[in-house]
Amino acid sequence: MDSNTWALLADLHIAAKRTKAARGVVMADNLTAVVRDLTALPTLPSAVLIAGDCSFGEGEADDYATLGDLLQPLRSAGMTLHFMTGNHDNRDNLRAAFGIRAGEGTKFGRHVAVVQTPLANWFLLDSLDPKIAVAGRLGDAQRAWLAAALDAHAQKPAILVAHHYLDDGVGKQPLQDTKEFLEIIVSRKQVKAFIYGHSHDWKVSRHASGIHLINLPPVGYVFSAGKPAGWVLATMQADGIRLQLKCVDRNHPMHGQVVPLEWRRE
Ligand SMILES: [Fe+2]
Prior knowledge:
alpha/beta; Purple Acid Phosphatase, chain A, domain 2; six-stranded mixed β-sheet; seven-stranded mixed β-sheet; 266 residues; binds fe (ii) ion
């Protein structure tokens, strides 16, 4: 097991019924394939991050019961699971199903965590705001907490994760407090990357500040034909991170794509 390697998953969309299909995909089958791939790796990642939209519907307890069953092989293999909320999740039901581990807490009604690893600190944010439905919002209290937490953990590269993407004027359901979020992270040079899901569209780009923007692929279904469904194997390094795309369809032309990223300088 390698504490510098994490598996990054998003948009699982698991329903209570394992046979549930959407957009031509049985989501439980996709997750089962991902779990099989993960447990077959020669060196296991220490953690599996699930960056929101765990549920198909609105975060019903039955969805999470099925999700827990499907993920059990990862737990049995000793990997730590980090669950995050998306707009299809219910915070209370997610917490009831999977609990809160040491180092994680429910602050200001949100589910956030700072997870320290040898080469980077991970800040797991909670962008679910049921009042605004599909778009997301961190909110004043979480942003204040984040600023303080970043200042308290300034010595190592910081990797931030939330379900929703930044508002770049293109995506229709973004993080509504993108401007305020950027004000916190751009000036704090330890912030090296922002990872998110929500768009069901794998892509890696870079903000003008040098912060890497990593849009995870969906484990479940894609929104446009030909896009990859799958997950990302992330290996932290002293000065960056190496991403490898793992497609559910091993014949997908992008399966195995490696994206090496170097951190912006202080
Ligand atoms: Fe989603």
